[in-house]
Fold this sequence. Notes:
The complex is a heterodimer. By secondary structure, chain A is an all-alpha fold. Chain A contains 22 helices and no strands. The radius of gyration of chain A is 22 Å and the shape is globular. By secondary structure, chain B is mainly β. Chain B has 6 helices and 39 strands. Chain B starts with 10 loop residues before the first helix and ends with a strand. In chain B, strand 10 (181-187) and strand 11 form a beta hairpin. In chain B, strands 1-30-29-28 form a 4-stranded antiparallel sheet, with no helix packed on it. In chain B, strands 2-3-4-5 form a 4-stranded antiparallel sheet. Chains A and B meet through helix 1, helix 18, helix 20 and helix 21 of A and loops of B.
Amino acid sequence: MNSRKTDSLPAAESAEVLRRLAPPEAAFALLMRTALCVTLLFGVSVNAEEPPLCEAASAQFKSGDVSGAQSALWDCVKSGEGNETHAVYLAETYRELRNYDSGLTRVDALLEEHADNIDLLCIAAYLRYRRNEPKESMLLVSKAYRLAPENWRVHQLFALNYISFNMLEGAKLSLLKAIDLNPRNAELHYQLARLYFTLGSYVESIAASKQALSIFPDYAEVYHNLALSYEGNGNVDLAIANFEKAIELDRKHGRKDESPLIDFAVYQRMQGSPDASLPLLREALAINPRSPKANYQMGELLRDMKRYEESGKYLELAVSLDPCNARALYGLAMITRLLEDSDRSEALLKRFKEVDAGGHCDAAASRPNY
Amino acid sequence: MRPRPAPTIDLRVGVLLVVTVAAVLANTATFDEVSAALNVRFSYRHSPTSNKYLIETMGGGVALFDYDNDGRLDIFLTNGAKLLDPMPPGSRPDKSDSKYWNRLFHQSKDGTFTDVTLKAGLSGNPEAGYSMGVAAGDYDNDGFEDILVTSYEGNVLYHNNGDGTFSNVTAKAGVGGSGWTVSAGFFDYNNDGRLDIFVTRYLDWTFENNRYCGDRVPGYRAYCHPNNFPAVSNLLYRNNGDGTFTDVSKASGIANAKGKSLGVAFADYDNDGWPDIFVANDSSPCFLFHNNRNGTFSEVGLITGTSLNQDGGAFAGMGTDFADYDNDGWPDIIVTDLSNEQYVLFRNTGKGLFLDESLGSRIGPESRLFSGWGVKFFDYDNDGWKDLFVAQSHVLDNIAMTAGHLKYEQPPLLLHNGQGKFSRAGSGDVFQQPRVSRGAAFGDIDNDGDVDMVVANLGQNVSVLRNNIGSHNHWLGLQLQGTRSNRDGIGARVEVTSSGGMKQFYTVSTSSSYLSASDRRIIAGLGTDTVKDVVIRWPSGIVQTLANLSVDRMLKVEEPAR
């Protein structure tokens, strides 16, 4: 029934917290979205004597033209005039555009000619990681490690892949090594903070978050993580303050991220403040009306508020957007039963049991069941 | 409770009185810890080992019952046993040392207690081994309360001989069972006038299949999560009326459901006149066994919304109570669990469905960092609304090493029920002092018209908590005695209507909380009201109405012939 994988209670508890707050996949998808303050964020900087071709690519990337920058950065890297920074920027463009397949086609071709190029190995490893191919990614990172054991990107990539394998202790050690090699990289501190949060080590998560903020004070995701960590250790005031800060920064920078709004809404609901939760969920749904999580949470909130008909509509949408969401299925089953449609409720509970049992959940195939 | 009457004294004087009373109450501890003053000295000896045997962290229980019918509640406490570290293959927990004995404390006229264990024959040495919980009920209708003790190695039934002694009748009665038995309760599931027995079993855990859990770093070994061990089924014994019982676990359908059961409570959730059973399971879906009125039960947890929390997730269910907190006539369910979850309140909608009301009631926000065991809805201030008490402590003695924001020792939680919304209550040291609490039993120890408590603590002295607040309001006590129904009146549904029109509903029971048995007498708080009437629906089906009752007294009610 629950997602606990560890054998002792503390870790199991933290896994339970995570199940509600942010599943590991979502957590790390969240951290991969970054602001464009890349120098502060990644602790890398372009050389003063940047070649013109690369300088233009960098400028394009910093301007937010990610698509255009991707092509220009490739030209820069291929020319052999680029450096680590341009490789990092290039990897970032794939994170934003998610066109991993085309990236792999290009980088694999180049690796045939330049098999020992660290930048290319790291880009290829990163793209494999993003394609959920951690074994293949690890092979590439291992090769890069043999060539450059003191390269921070190598250790960061080790960490990301370890997380895919649920080897969180290994991930922690790799991130600590990466930070040792590149201490001014705010993203590494943030990733470490997220990892500590995942492990239920809230005090350490808070410390790592503060390190990230000392480098990059406007790092919205870090405030979000701080809020979740303070929530974890029961500090209500600081949890609320940091949720508010994360949301304020997103609004200030025009960043459309519904995640902190949803988590803050959930927190307010958990604190017994449904009225404070409602506008946050409305804002989240305005940003992303098709967010399964936001729709689910709105359904649950309205159920708490005894607005059952409305609740049912949001839960219906949550289930249709993510038929494998066991929680939404269960919530909808309860509401449907409350609204006296017993047959449908039983069908939903049957589906809930199938999904919750952890069997293969094919979203497309599951739709006709309703 | 009702609109206050027009003041009959000078308003300024009235205001002064209100202010004065409020000031007095504000400076009065809600409960006082009086174990030392009452001479109740006892610690549950759990024999902690480096092997972290799971039973070490799960005991023990309390029974508050009047074994000698002198009108004063007595206290029975279960105890652990000596464990070796490690336990050699084939060895058993050793209860021979008197510090591991179970204990019976008799209440004297002056309110103090005397240890009468040896005279009563309730030490449990050796038959009750590493004891866990206790249930109380008069299974043979002879007018004297009997007890059943659960343990790592099954049950022991003690018959109350009526002369201050008890006899171990386990073998004759056929209720020994097997495995690690935990909470138990007497109830009359077939309404035949004889109390039957339900027993929860936790896990298929033994000293032999114990394993290493937690980090392999000195000090970090931890008690294992229940997911490491197979689930087991619970036990139901039908009373044959001749001093013997029949194990009907399979025949009744109870054994079809395997779980990791800890707490149990009984109530008639659909008001059909037949008692149902709620079982709190640890990290697996809870059970609600619906009584099919033909000797069988159907497990309906999922379709009634009582097996999982609002998120559709299982939780670490431990203690439970099954009572009507919102005075709508439908019994609700509370389940305690671990820190980082929240205590789960299932509100009975009266339509065969319960809704998780943990957030709306504010019980969830108030409990997120706590781990709860013994629990009960009871009206500590006699205002007519059942409040909530939880005995607390984390299950892991080294939790602070892996989760710095959590504590092993935790103070108890008292939540005041403000018409369905709960808020933190409880002033005084009792609610500041962290403890390692497990079972808790409830009853009016000093017969002053409010509910007191006894809480079993692991490796610490038992807490006897005297209520200082409730008797400031009016109350009516009801002690039922069945004639056609079981003599204890267990399972009777009691509806109390105050002079202001407010209704309260109770089910007579000794079973709820965790590992513990509470006073079966009912105390209905009335605030400033008196009583309009009391309607009792006995398990036999007989309905009895009482009117013109004076308040602030314990009323003995005998079941009428029809």
